Every structure is written in structure tokens, then in C-alpha cells.
Amino acid sequence: MQEFLEAITAGASGEELAAIPIPDSYRAAFVRRSDAAMFEGVDSGDKDPREAIRIEEVPTPELAPDEAYVAVMASSINFNTVWTSIFEPLPTFGFLDRLGQESFWGARHALDHHVIGSDGSGVVIGVGSAVRNWKVGDRVTIQCNYVDSQDPSAHNDSMKAANQRIWGFETNFGGLADLSVVKANQLMPKPSHLTWEESAVNALCASTSYRMLVSNNAATMRQGDIVLIWGATGGLGSYATQLVINGGGIPVGVVSSPEKGQLLKEMGCDAVIDRRAEDYQFWSDEHNQDEREWRRFGKRIRELVGEDPDIVFEHPGRQTMGASVFAAKRGGIIVTCAATSGYMIEYDNRHLWMKLKQIVSSHFANYGEAWLMNRLIDRGAIHPTLSDTYTLDNVGEATYQVYNNRHEGKLGVLCLAPEQGLGVTDPEKRAEVGEDLITRFQRHTAAQAKPSS
Ligand code: NAP
Predict the structure, then answer these.
(1) Final residue belonging to a domain, choices 336, 361, 386
(2) Of 61, 249, 275, 410, which one has the greatest count of Cβ atoms within 10 A?
(3) pTM (2 decimals)?
(4) Chunked in runs of 10, what are the mean pLDDT values of the chain (453 residues)?
């Protein structure tokens, strides 16, 4: 891939890039099928992604007609990288094997190594014969909704397609690598004012938050809505907070340190709850929740914004769902896309039905939603929340940081890009959008002198 890097850095044309042969192998971060039982008997919190993630050369797969090869300049860590690398709740090889049984092209994915990663920015270096809208040389970001467009179920909302998958999690050939294989309908234009790493961190978390809050497939936030956001400076939450403010809503952000609280205030979120400082104990023991703690939490929200939340942005799951259902206003919506702290959920159903609340599910975003989200970033209305950048060799360490909640916003990963700060093609637009807004999370994390990559 070195030849591609040199050509891209030298500003080679699409024609020049197309003349470079695709290499037989490439450098990638992956987990091995033979390691899937390596954490058996280890407590969940003690499982260490650094032990499972390997960085080595892997063979380049053949390209299907509807696909593109992308020279990946940068990628990011998502929580699904954590799940894959600790083999929880299940090893991801089952997904690959099922995809492998679907078709001739699907069979390429059922390998004994799983190349991980569900975000990426880079340059198209090869296209299949059926690709119409993209050509070699295009600078792109990649969204992770992987859909079989021939299945009728994919043609209303593709997230409801019978065989919808998340690229790099339920498929092979993910983004934490120097090269990736994606369907053409995963490609979106790279925002010209952002660096490779700033462009790479947005698609998964921002698009998920967009569908949860903005699109009419989930909570459909209105101007003036009060939105309670768990993990408001985390991967999902950092985009949710921006979307609420940008859309005329009123965010109430929950975080777990004064530093994160300060960051929220700098973003324009005035109502901040430090869950650690205020010491909410929603669970009195492993089996019982304490309604008095739900009430104390609800009272705190009213103190801050005068009303109960119209929408609760939920993803921590078991630890918080009881409180989320309680705190939502009469007729309010709890929109959930995850369950980091446990997926067997308990809440008091009386608070749901007597007050006509709704729990609404959401999962990533269809291509249209991801495209609209990318457009908001491209127009400088929403900013990347990249806080720190690692090299591909350090993906294990970066994943470990996310697993242990030691990060803010998003962690970027340099793949082919040799250093940070490259890839901006419109510096004037960058200056107009504002360097301080684009780099807010990076500066905040640097100021706290976190362990460096
Ligand atoms: P993240 O960057 O780690 O952020 C999550 C935030 O949640 C943390 O910053 C933390 O904030 C808060 N949190 C963690 N545990 C908590 C708990 N027990 N109680 C309250 N708050 C807690 O992760 P993310 O990228 O936002 O992803 C969050 C979850 O969503 C993961 O499970 C991920 O797999 C899932 N996800 C699903 C989709 C989808 O399409 N379905 C897409 C993206 C992510 P504080 O410590 O500051 O409170």
C-alpha cells in the first residue's frame, strides 16, 4: 500500500492511482477464530482487548461488482470493536459464517481472521464493474450499513432489511486496516475541511445519534424538546448533544467527571449532571432498584430545566433504564440503541403505561440518514469529537481505553496516513467553520494530559 500512499500524498490523479496494482496483502487489525475462547472464565471487566487484537498482513479479497477498494487513511474505535475483541456477547465469527453461506461473494467473509473496524476515511483505489457513482481517486468517508440491495425488505428503510449487517462487525474487511472492501452504497464524500482522522470518526456514532433523535424513524425531536443524554461527552452522546443544540432542543447531559461537565458547558449544554459526584445508586443490590434514587434523579433534572425530559437518549442499558423510564415525561420517549452495562433490562412498567411513555428502538442509520448526517458535518454545523489519535499498531491500546471509559468523544486511528493533520483540501472553509470548534475535544483531552498514544 506504500505506493498508493506516496501517490495520494503527491496528489496523483484517478488515472494514475488506477494504474497502480492492488497488492496481494495488506496490514490490518483483526481477531482470530482460534482465540475466540481465550477469555473463558475471565470476569468481563478483566478481559483485555490488547491480548486479542493482532496487527499483521492479511490477503486481499477479490472485489465484487458492487464494491470498491478504499485506501484507508484513518479509522476510529467504536464500542463494537470492544465487543469483537473480548468475544462478547458472542464471537463475531458466527456472523461471518452466516454471511458466508448467503452467496458466492458472501463466502469471502467466512475466514479464520476477522478484520475489524466500522469507520473510515480514505481514497477509492478500485471499483467493481457495477459501481456508477464513485471512481478511483474520490476522497470518501465510509458508513457501516451493509445491505443486500437485491432483497425487497431493504427497500423501505434499509435498517429493517432482513439481512442488514454492520460492516467490520458482522462482515469482514473492516476499516482498521490500510485497505478495505466496501459496498459502493457505503461511500460518502469526505468533508473537505477536515483531516483524515477528523473525517474518520463521525459516521458510525453521529449517524446513530441522528436516527435516534432527528430522523422520523425514532424520537423525531422538535424544537424546545428537553433531551436527557446519558454519556453526553462519549461517542454517541457527543454528537447527540450537538444535534439537540443544533435542532433547538434543550440538552440535559449526564457525565461522570467535572472535566467532562466543563466540556459539556463549553459545547453549550448548560444543564449538566455529574452522576459520580451526585452518586446515584439506582440499584440497591444485584436484583433490586431503588425508586428513591430514580426520584432524586428526576428531581435534579427538574431543578436544572424545570420539566421532565421529552426524550431520553438511552444506551447504558441495565444500569440506567429503570431511571430513564421513570424520568421521561408523561407521553415521553425513551429511545435506546444499546445496553453497555447489560442487556437484560428491568424497569417499572407502571411508570411506562400509566404515563403513556414509549420505549423506541433504534440501530445505526440507513444510507439516507447517514448521508444527511455527513452533510451536516460537511457544512460545519456538527463537528467531529475526535479527542485523541492512535496508530494502527496501537489499536489494542485504543480499544482498551474505550472499554475502560478513559476517553472523551471518539478515538481516531491513523491507518495509511503517516501523521495527524493531513487531508484538508479546503483550508478556507476550515477557517470559516472554526478551528476551535473542530478541535474542541482534542484540545480538551490534551489539556488533561491523558496517557499519550
Ligand atoms: P462510549 O464512547 O464509551 O460512550 C458511552 C458513555 O456512556 C461513556 O462516556 C459514559 O459516560 C457513559 N456510560 C458508560 N457506562 C455507563 C453507566 N453504567 N451508566 C451511565 N453512563 C454510562 O461509547 P459509545 O460509542 O457512545 O457507545 C455506547 C453504547 O452504544 C455501546 O454499547 C455501543 O456498542 C452502542 N452503540 C450502538 C450503536 C447502534 O447502532 N445500535 C451505535 C453506536 C454505539 P460518563 O462516564 O461520562 O457518564
Answers:
(1) 361
(2) 410
(3) 0.97
(4) 96 97 98 96 91 98 98 98 95 97 97 98 98 98 94 93 96 98 98 98 98 97 98 98 98 97 98 98 95 98 98 98 98 97 96 98 98 98 98 98 96 98 98 98 87 47
- Total of domains in the chain: 2
* Residue 205 Cβ < 6 Å to ligand 1: yes
Q: Which of 405, 441, 448, 450 to mutate to test the pocket of ligand 1 (most atoms within 8 A of CB)?
A: 405
User: In terms of domains, do 89 and 16 share one?
Assistant: yes
Rounded to an integer, what distance in angstroms lies between the CA atom of residue 403 and that of residue 340?
10
User: Would the CB of 254 count as within 6 Å of ligand 1?
Assistant: yes
- Both 369 and 356 in a single domain? no
CA distance linking residue 389 with residue 76, whole number of Å: 9
Distance 236 CA to ligand 1 centre (A): 7
pLDDT value of residue 148:
87
**Sequence-distant (≥ 6) Cβ neighbours of residue 308 within 8 angstroms:** 226, 298, 301, 302, 327, 328, 329, 330, 332
CATH number of residue 279's parent domain: 3.40.50.720
pLDDT of residue 450: 53
Q: Return the residue whose CA atom lies nearest to atom 32 of ligand 1.
A: 340
Q: Are strands 226-229 and 311-314 parallel, antiparallel or unpaired?
A: parallel
Q: What is the CATH number of the domain that holds 82?
A: 3.90.180.10
Three-class DSSP labels, the chain:
CHHHHHHHHCCCCHHHHHCCCCCCEEEEEEEEHHHCCCCCCCCHHHCCHHHHCEEEEEECCCCCCCEEEEEEEEEECCHHHHHHHCCCCCCCHHHHHHHHCCCCCHHHHCCCEEECCCCEEEEEEEECCCCCCCCCCCEEEECCEECCCCCHHHCCCHHHCCCCEECCCCCCCCCCECEEEEEHHHEEECCCCCCHHHHHCCHHHHHHHHHHHCCCCCCCCCCCCEEEECCCCCHHHHHHHHHHHHCCCEEEEEECCHHHHHHHHHHCCCEEEECCCCCCCCECCCCCECHHHHHHHHHHHHHHHCCCCCEEEECCCCCCHHHHHHHCCCCCEEEECCCCCCCCCCCCHHHHHCCCCEEEECCCCCHHHHHHHHHHHHCCCCCCCEEEEEEHHHHHHHHHHHHCCCCCCEEEEECCCCCCCCCCCCHHHHHHHCHHHHCHHHHHHHHCCCCCC
